[in-house]
Amino acid sequence: MWKAQITSKNSIKAGVLAGALLIAPIALAAPPSASVVDESVREQQRELFKQAEVAVKRRRIKEYQQLVQQLEGYPLLPYLELDRIGQIGYIANEDYVLSFFDRYQQSPLDWQARQPWLDYLMRQGDYQRFVRDFKAPGSQTHQCFLIEAQLALLPTEQHTADQADVNRLQVLRQVDTVWRNGSSLPKACDTILAAWAEAGLRTPELIWERVVLAAEGGQHTLLPYLGRLLPEPMQYLAEHYRRVRVNPSYVTRFSALTQAYPEHEAKILSYGLRRLIWRDPDLALATLAKLPSHIVWTAEQQLSLNQTFATALSVKNHPQAETWLARLAPNEHNDTTLQWQLADWVRRGAWQQIIEFMPRLPDTERESDQWQYWFARSLESLGQPGVAAPLWRELAQSRSYYGFLAAAKLDVPLNLQRQPLQLSEQQRQALWQLDGVQRAYELRALDRHLDARREWFYMVNMVTPAQQLQLAALASEWGWHDQAIYTLGQAGEFDAVAQRFPEAYLEQHQKFADAAQIDVNWALAVSRRESAFRHDARSHAGAYGLMQLLPSTARLMEDKPLNHRDLFHVETNIRLGTRYLSHLQQRLEGNWLLATAAYNAGIYRVYDWIPTQPLAADRWIETIPYAETRNYVKNVLAYQQIYRALRQGEQQPELFQQVVPMRIGKLPATSANSGD
C-alpha cells in the first residue's frame, strides 16, 4: 500500500481542515484465476465495500477509514476514492487528484473524476490548470472553456502586435468546429462566440452551413436566430428552410423563392422533396416535374434525389418505383436502393434481369452471399438447375441465412465453420492481472452492470487483438454472454460459434418454450437477436429485458400491469416472451416465420405485407418493406438453425428445408381479425 504525496505544507493543512485524504491509492493484488478467488472472502469484502460507500456518502469519516483498512487489495477501492474525491478540497489535494487521473487514465474512472474536476476549475476560472488537465473530447461546455482559457493564456509580451493577432486568430479558428452544430450551444460558449464574431470569422458561409445543419435534422427552432445573422438579402432562406422542415409540402410554394440565391434555393428544395416523397409521393413527383427553370441540381443533389425517390417509392410499392430504380446505374446504387432493386426483381420474378445485372455489380456485392443466392435462384427459375447447382454448393459452405438456404436446396449438411475458442490457464492468469478484469468481475457480482460494461468497454479498446479474443473467452466463462458476443464482434472473430451462440438461460427457455408449445431453439434465437442475452437491455422504443418486451405486450400476455423492473427479471421475461411468440404463431395460422416478422414489426404490419397471390417464402422475406424486420427475420432463422445444430447435433438444414417449399399467401379472414 502506498500513499499519495501532497507536497506543500499549506496543502497538507488545507487537506486536514477539509477532512480530506483519508484514502490512499491501493496496489491491487490480482488473483490468478476466477477459480482461485476465495468467494467467501470476496463476499465479506463486498459487504464491507457497500458499508464503506454508505459511510463516505454520509461523511462518517472515522467509520469509513476503518472499513477501508479492511479492504486492502479489494479491486473496487478506486470507486471509494472516486466518491471521496468529490468531497475533499480540490486544490488542497491537487497532487492526489492528478495521481488518480494518472493511475486510471485507461479506465472509465478517469472521466468520472476528471469531469467534476474540470467543472470545478471552470467555476474557479482557473485557466492554467484547465488547459493542463483537459482531455478530449470533453463536453461542449469544456471545449468552449478550453478555447476561452487558451485565449486568456496567450502571451502578452515578447511578441509584436502582428504576431499577437496571428496567435489570437489561430486560437479563435477552433471556434469554427464548435459552431458547426445544428443545436443550441451552451452559455459557456457565448464568450468565445462573441470574440470569434468580433474578429470577423463568423462568415455568411459558416452561418449558412449551420442553417443547413439546424434545418436538416438539428434544432429547427434555432433557424430564426441564425436567419437574423445572415445578410439581409439572404434572411428569407432560413425562414423558407424552417417552413419546409415543419411541413415538407411547403416546398411547393415556389412564390417564396426570390431566385437571388439559386444554389441555396436548390439546396432547400432538394431537402424538401426528399422528405415530401415519403409523405405524399404523388405531390412530390408532380412538384419535381414543374420546378422553376433557375433550379439546377448539382450531380450530388441529383443522385441523392434519385436514390431517395427510388427507395421511398419502392417501400410504398408505388407504380413508378421500377422507373426510378432504373434511373440508377450499378455504381450509383447505395445499399438501400440496391436492396430495393433486387427486391423489385424478386417480387416480379424478373430472373433474366438479375442475371444480366450481376456482371455489372461491384465485386463486393457480386461476391456477396445475397447476390450469389439470387443469381443461382434465377438460373434455377429459368430452367437451368445444373448451372445453379455448383453455385448452391459453394454457397452452402457459408454459415449464413443464404448459405443455409443453399444447403437446404441441395439437401447437404450445414457447414458451421466452428473454431473453438479456449483459454489456457496461463492466459487466464495473465488476464487476471488486468485491473479492469478484476473491477468488472466485482461490479457484476454487485449487480452494477452499467459500471461493469463501462470497465469492459474501455479495456477491450485498450488491449491487443489477441487479448480481445481471450477476454471474450473469459466473459463467456463468466456467463457474461452479451459482452462475450460484443468482444468477439469487436475483434472481428465470427467463427467462435460456441461463444457467439451460448445456451444462455437454457433451463428457463426450455421450461417456458415447452409450456408455450414452441421450439426452444426459436426462443433462444429471439433472445440472442434481441439482446444478446443481456437481461437488463432496454431499447429506444421502450422494450425491456432478454426478449425485449414492451410493457403493453407484457400486459396483454399477463393481463395485469408490469413495469420495467418486472421485465428485467429473467424468468418473467422469458415466460412472457415465449407466450407472445406462441400467441403470434397461433394468430398467423401456425406459421412461425410470419410470427418472427410480427414479433419485430407488429402483427398488423405483417397482415399488410402478406401478398394476395402466394409467394415463395424466400421471395417474401427478401421483399419485406422494413429493412430492420427483413434482416431480423433472416437473422432469427439462421440463429434458430444454428441452435438446432449445436444443441441436437443435427447437421442437416432441416429448418430451412421447411422454408424452401413454403409459400406465403393471404390468411383466412378470421385469422387477421381475431382479437388483439
Automatic annotation (TrEMBL):
One of its GO terms (cellular component) is periplasmic space. InterPro entries: Lysozyme-like_dom_sf, Lytic_TGlycoase_superhlx_L_sf, Lytic_TGlycosylase_superhlx_L, Lytic_TGlycosylase_superhlx_U, Transglycosylase_SLT_dom_1. The keyword Signal applies. One of its GO terms (molecular function) is hydrolase activity, hydrolyzing O-glycosyl compounds. Keywords: Signal. SUPFAM superfamilies: Bacterial muramidases, Lysozyme-like. Residues 1-29 form the signal peptide. Residues 511-612 form the Transglycosylase SLT domain. Residues 433-496 form the Lytic transglycosylase superhelical linker domain. Gene3D superfamilies: 1.10.530.10, Bacterial muramidases, Lytic transglycosylase, superhelical linker domain. Belongs to the transglycosylase Slt family. This is Soluble lytic murein transglycosylase.
